[in-house]
Structures are given as C-alpha cells and as structure tokens.
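A note on notation is needed here, since sequence and fold are reported together in a single record. The reader may check this reading against the record printed directly beneath this paragraph.
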Amino acid sequence: MGKLIALLYGLVAYLLFAVSIVYSIGFVTGLIVPKTIDSGPAGPPMQAIIVNLLLMGLFAVQHSVMARPQFKKWWTQFVPQTIERSTFVLFSSLALLLLFWQWQPIPAVVWQVSNPLAADLLLGIGLFGWVLVFISTFLINHFELFGLHQVANNLVGKPMPAMHFRTPLFYNVVRHPIYLGFIIFFWATPVMTAGHLLFAAVTTAYIFVGIALEEHDLMAVFGDEYRRYRQRVAMIVPFLGKS
C-alpha cells in the first residue's frame, strides 16, 4: 500500500509539473492562457519590480536549496528517498504557479517587432527553445529527472540503476542544452516589455548561478571525467565557454 501511495504521489507531482510547465509557454509568449507576463492591471512599477523579484527569488531559493546534495541528505531523514525527487518537483511546480498567479505586469515596451514575418520568426525561435528543453530532458532520463522512474521502480521492488555519465546528442555540443533552450525561450520574443525583460534577465542570471552549483556537484560525483567534459564541450553557447 505504501508503494502504491508513493506512486500516486509521484504521478500527482508530475501532473502538477506538466500543468505548470505547459502554462509557462503561454505565460511567456502571451498565447492562449488567461494570465500572461504582460496581462492584468498595471500598478506602480517599483511595487511590481519588488513583488516580481520576491516571487523569482522564492523559486530560485527553493529550487537551488532542494537540489543540493547536502539538503537531500538532511531532507531524506524525513522524506523517503523514493519520493524525494517527486517532492522537489512538487515544490518547484507550486513555486512556479505562485509566480504566474501573483506576477505584476510592467507593460512599458522595450522593443517591438512590427514586421509580421519577423515577429512570427522570433516567436518560432522562442518555441524552438522550448522544444530543445523538452527533447534534452528525454535525452538523459525525463522520467527520472521528474521523479516517476523512482516511484515506478519502488512499486515493483526494483532498485534504481547506478548513475552513469552520458553525453547524448545535444550534450556533445553544449553542456547544458536544457538551460540554453530556456534562455532562447525567454529572450526570443517580438514584443519585449519591461516586465518580460525583468523576467528574462533575472532568470538568465539565475541559470548561470544554477550552472555553477550544478557543475560543482557533478565534479564531486564524476571527478576527472566531468572535468575533461568541461574542457571538451562549451557550457551554454556552442564552441564558446570551454573550461
């Protein structure tokens, strides 16, 4: 019964993740969803900046702290190892949904592409970034990354396989294709408002902080194998930023 409950918990966490990540596409692009990065009544710009920074800071702290090995070691004293990843996914999704809900628009236009063909091209490039994110998660292990593999193996009494260092497809071009996809998605837009610019700039800065933390953890696990990988493959821009 406990294993079945863990599986259901993992499925709920994954479903909430799916809702939040699909909503993020509409939130950033302004397509379909009721609340977007630029919709809603605009209040005082300074108030909006403070609220939005607090929302992004909450997500960044939650995401970074819960991803660290030291926190996981402490956290799994209270949360079973089987659902640790699902719990991380659940908390991250809730923080993201809170950001969407409480985001304050700052509608001043920084740039706008008026040519319809160029505007559609920029939108397409942005959506390509999201496709890159999606494919890159499956190139490693999408279902392990978001906790389903763990709860499914637990249900059938199968241990999780040992971690192996792999660099499939895009990972031979840049070390972090998921983060590259997010950066493309955030910045490739035909209409850049001040609110969108704030979102893109802060999340991009956070991505580079996250890369530094993640690579520190990866070198601790894989040692010289990952150090050689850093020397061989660019960090985020193809052919640039090798260590």
